[in-house]
Amino acid sequence: MAHKKKVKKYFVKIEPDECKGCERCVNACPKAVLKMGTDLNFMGFPFAYYVGAGCVGCAACFYNCPEPGAITILEESDDTDDSGKEEEEED
Ligand code: SF4
Ligand code: SF4
Hints:
It is built from two helices and four strands. By secondary structure, the chain is mainly beta. The strands form two sheets. It has a two-stranded antiparallel ribbon. It is 11% helix and 37% strand. The site of one iron/sulfur cluster has 16 residues, from helix 1 and strand 3.
């Protein structure tokens, strides 16, 4: 039987040129999915980046960031049809 599941996915977008490299978001993230890079932005600051997976959308990074516009949390809802999965359900 095919099941349709609503799966929420979250992504965090960090604007390198808005970031001051304070690391507050990195320290605030309960999932440790934000890191500091080694490249510098146009102001000469290292900037945070999202590792690409694992964000739960808690917004702790957003509320701890002193720079408006540096962090955007994006939510994407997928209708995931898991009928093609090989996973077996036990009765
Ligand atoms: S929304 Fe929460 S889990 Fe996602 S990157 Fe920000 S602090 Fe981490
Ligand atoms: S909290 Fe904001 S300014 Fe500080 S490192 Fe993270 S994105 Fe950059």
